[in-house]
Amino acid sequence: MPHFINHNLKVAKFRSKEICFFFFSKHVYIWYSTCRGDDVMVKRKPQYVKIKEYIIQNIEDEKYNENEQIESEHALCELFGVTRMTVRQALTELINENVIYSVPKVGSFVCKKSRFKSFDGLNSVTEDCAKKKEDCTSHVVLNELEEATALMKKEMALEDNKVWHVKRVRLVNGEPLCFEDDYCNYDLTGDIPLEVSSTSLFNHFENDLNLHIAFSDQQIDAVLAGEELGKYLQVDPVTPLLRVLSITCLHNGKCIEYGYTYYRVDKYTFNQVAYRRK
């Protein structure tokens, strides 16, 4: 029997294909979809992904502490109504991502890495810490007006030759997490007070300057800390760091911020769920 969407639309299934009948006055319009049932299902989030996100969210919300055991495979099977194989797929991926570790015949436990940054949204370090109810502070190394380099003029599409340069160490609960080296579009921001550079730049841009941040084009690679970053982040100079280049723009397309953030890999983990598309 056809399923009624509304008074004017009927949908019928025929050999895994959809035929839609749209009634308008006395005429019948037909929309024919060649999508297979399997193709429609691809759009749904796989169950093992939901399990991963559930565990990660519990870690972020501190429902699990470091080295604390999470639910058993049997408990997760009952919670999500899935097979043990699906649960094991989720746990195996989390083990490979260094989120949890497994103790044979005992269970799965939370790794020491407990801070995650998801790629599904644009949040500042301050905002990430606020969600986890952690204390975020800054040690400002540099806060001054400078002449823009040729690269900055090109990447930021500057109308003027001036940028406001901010270098700072971001600390979480008193421990160095990352080092930020940012150049701000002086035409948009003007002078940035030291007390602002010590807190959240995003908050200043949006709430004090009424600017609307839209997106950030980001690239990630790995570098060695070196002497300067090693000193500020309290790591050995040959320690690898995750380097994130961010080019942040407003709704009107103007670039407001260009810079690098260097993360300690023992303090921060980036989390991404990637969906296969054909």
UniProtKB/TrEMBL annotation:
It comes from Faecalibacillus faecis. Residues 45-113 form the HTH gntR-type domain. This is GntR family transcriptional regulator. One of its GO terms (biological process) is negative regulation of DNA-templated transcription. It holds the Pfam family GntR. InterPro entries: Bact_HTH_transcr_reg, Chorismate_lyase_/UTRA_dom_sf, Tscrpt_reg_HTH_GntR, UTRA, WH-like_DNA-bd_sf, WH_DNA-bd_sf. The lineage of its organism: Bacteria, Bacillati, Bacillota, Erysipelotrichia, Erysipelotrichales. The keyword Nuclease does not apply. GO terms for molecular function: DNA binding; DNA-binding transcription factor activity. SUPFAM superfamilies: Chorismate lyase-like, Winged helix' DNA-binding domain. Keywords: DNA-binding, Transcription, Transcription regulation. It comes from the Bacteria.
